[in-house]
Amino acid sequence: MLTLTSICKTFQTNDIETYAVSDVNLTINKGEFVSIMGQSGCGKSTLLNIIGLLDDPTSGTIELDGINVENMTDVELARTRNHKLGFIFQSFHLIPALNVLDNVELPLLYRDGISAKDRRARAIEVLKKVGLSHRMKHFPKQLSGGQSQRVAIARALIGNPEIILADEPTGNLDSKTGVEIMEILHNLNKEGTTIIMVTHDRGIAEQTERIISILDGKLI
Fold this sequence. Notes:
Helix content is 33%, strand content 28%. It is an alpha/beta fold. It has one domain: Rossmann fold. It has a six-stranded mixed β-sheet with strand order 6-7-8-3-9-10, sandwiched between helices. Strands 2-1-4-5 form a four-stranded antiparallel β-sheet, with helices on one face. Helix 6 (175-190) links the parallel strand 7 (163-167) and strand 8 (194-199).
């Protein structure tokens, strides 16, 4: 499903060039649940952003479903992100002024041909899936951390993505809530969704099928 070949990402500070990601070669197969593990600052989130087409590599190629994304226009990249990928962030990124239902609906606002009625029905469906149908009219400030992460997962699911990219999805949660979030991710994976998760927690990483360890920007 996803192939990275000789991926590098460098940052320039004055005359100093720093490698955030260095010569990464990686293949992710359809239906896998993979974790990318490493300490803070090792390059794992940068790598996830490159996989998610949120950031361009300095060099190397990315193929998604056999298509080299380097040849895509900005519009095609945006459409690919919206249709094929779902994003879950450690800090949730919910919009405070919108209630739970409106937050979850957001990704479908950028798709043509979907009515407001269909958006609402799909949002209700995915909120039921994550166990939050009773919180649809609440606002982010009225939610616990675990509930906010469930909303973020529902928002990632609403577009029926083939791949979910999760950046430290349990990082801001207590251990009990972290277990509940991992259970949701495992259930999604059993339904066929490919999941790529970044974590610094070995206990969390060991719950996935494959651990990809990264150190100083290199896969080890």
